[in-house]
Amino acid sequence: MKKLFSLFLIVLAISVNGQNATPLSPSVLTPELLVLKQVSHDFGKIQQGRPVTHLFEVSNAGAEPLRIENVQASCGCTTPEWSTEAIKPGGITTIKVGFNAASEGAFQKTVTILYNGSQTKTITISGIVFKAAATSAPANSSIALLKQNNQ
Fold first, then answer.
1. pLDDT in tens for each of the 151 residues of the chain?
2. How many CB atoms lie under 10 A from the CB of residue 96?
3. Long-range Cβ contacts of 62-67 (<8 Å, 24+ apart)
4. Distance between CA atoms of residues 12 and 92, nearest Å
5. Is 19 helix (H, G, I), strand (E, B) or coil?
6. Which long-range contacts (CB under 8 A, 24 or more apart) does 116-122 make?
7. Torsion angles phi and psi, residue 48, rounded to 5
8. Which of 42, 77, 93, 111 has the fewest CB atoms within 10 Å distance of its CB?
9. What is the CA radius of gyration of the chain?
10. CB distance 60 to 68 below 8 Å
11. So what's the pLDDT on residue 24?
12. d(Cα 113, Cα 97) in Å, to the nearest integer?
């Protein structure tokens, strides 16, 4: 009788615990297919008027081919380039993200990757654009003096 009562308590505890458990989120049920080696890149200080680029590595961690359908930047100063070819399971590709450093100051831009229908991932680029010098080098008045002395 004690064994039967103990068994009843165990079954009751499991059923009560199961009713109070939170359901698993979809991300727990389905593994990530698209894996990014890095989700952000800081360009640091870059000169105004000099476009910069960075390659983000993307891999397919799933068992089925992965297709990147669109890559959309948050503004026109950021330009992504990617392959429309399907990425085989275990395969790797890159997304090239360019930034036109036209405006002076700090920036942070996002790029959204749309893949396999309606799944998305976001990557971020950031940095600080400093004003370009008016000339390539300051004028050196000593050169004229040296030229006069050597004649």
1. 555 555 454 554 555 454 444 444 444 445 678 999 999 999 999 999 999 999 999 999 999 999 999 999 999 999 999 999 999 999 999 999 999 998 899 999 999 999 998 899 999 999 999 997 776 666 666 666 666 666 6
2. 14
3. 62/31, 62/33, 62/89, 63/89, 64/33, 64/89, 65/89, 66/33, 66/34, 66/91, 66/115, 66/116, 67/115, 67/116
4. 49
5. helix
6. 116/33, 116/34, 116/66, 116/67, 116/69, 117/69, 119/33, 119/34, 121/34, 121/36, 121/39, 122/39
7. -60, 140
8. 42
9. 29
10. no
11. 47
12. 12
What does the block give as tokens for 73? 């930047």
Tokens coding 145: 């003096």
> Which tokens is 6 given?
């103990």
Question: What stretch of H or E contains 33?
Answer: none
